[in-house]
Amino acid sequence: FSDSLTRMVDISKVKLRDIPCTKSLILVCLMLALFVWMSMNTNLPVGVIGVPKGGIDDLALNYKNQKIAVASARGGTILPHFWTPFHDYIKRVQGCEDCPQLHKWEPYFKAYHTHLSRFRGKSITMVEVGVQSGGSAMMWKSYFGPGLRYYGIDINPQAQQFQSDWATIFIGDQADPAFWDSLRGKLPKEVDFFLDDGGHTMEQQKVTFQKAFPLVKLNGVYACEDLSTSYSPFFGGEHLEAGALSGPKGSFIELAKQMIDWMNCYFAGGNVMNKWQGECSSEFHKGIMGTNGFLDSAYSLHFYSQILLIEKAQVLSPVPLKGGGYKFGYGGPDTFWDGKLYKTPSLSTKPLPL
Q1: How far apart are CA 284 and CA 269, in angstroms?
Q2: What does the alpha-carbon distance between residue 118 and residue 126 come to, in Å, rounded to a whole number?
């Protein structure tokens, strides 16, 4: 029986014929077989898929070679390199005509799971611009679990039908700064996760980033989807010529590239390596990133195809840290080795902190 339990560690791999049954354990075997069958065949309703503990095991490769249907004119299926709980959810609702429609691009799911899995099964507050047909809200509810408090923003009044005990919907234009000002006191002062999946125009994305980035708490995540619109004149972007080193001008993509300069503003004056400039010049305290808290809290940028995620944490002015006293100068083309070998300090002096 103990051998049976050992083989149950990965229940997804257990096959009924692998369970060793004896006459004295027939009842236990029947119960175990029923449990395995239910785990492989349960058809859970929308938003009730369960919340695993999360962690690195959930970021595994698609080792089962699971395929998923493509939502395009060409049809067919794809074989994702990674398989996440998002794929499980989408696969469950793809044949459900009454389920709220969800429209996402494949590269997003691994990115989301990498940066958001720490919130699963916990109390989390999320704001999403772009409720649309409600499918995204249901997906996030399924992913985060019962602890999700969802605030949705959409310009279409029809989105209000998705109000519930865990979801609050606001109607307004994300490109209007006055609309964001009107939400003060209605939205939480701080949120764990903010997602811009709204109208995707350059003005909408920039105004939303200006106004909403300060809402995200430290250790939270700000994300903007569908950055491909930066290359479309219809959305206020412009085409990018092959091999171009800058542009598309005035786009959110170009703004995102500038974020890299803002994160390194301490060294923009040329003081690098061992030197320390101390503070960013006044020019970096202007514009969107200079006035919405980006300098103090944008800890890291994560670019994936069509999507940017910004991890927030306290940002300290960079200072060099050193340890140990043994050193030699930097090398060059004419540097040669003198043949000496490094000797570990003897324990009679000062031991290494191993």
Answers
A1: 12
A2: 14
Q: Are residues 242 and 236 in contact, defined by beta-carbon separation less than 8 angstroms? A: no
The band of 33, judged by pLDDT with boundaries at 50, 70 and 90, is low
Mean pLDDT of the chain: 81
Residues 288, 212: Cα–Cα separation, whole Å: 11
* The model scores a pTM over 0.85: no
State whether residue 31 is helix, strand or coil. Answer: helix
Largest CA distance in the chain: 81
Distance of CA 222 to the CA centre of its chain: 8
Q: Are strands 307-312 and 68-69 parallel, antiparallel or unpaired?
A: unpaired
Token duo for residue 354:
């191993």
Structure tokens that stand for 341 in this block: 């070998």
Structure token pair of residue 246: 């800058």
- Token pair 């602890």 is found at 147
Rounded (5°) CA angle 102-105-110: 105
Residue 194 exposed, middle or buried by CB count within 10 Å (0-12, 13-18, 19+): buried
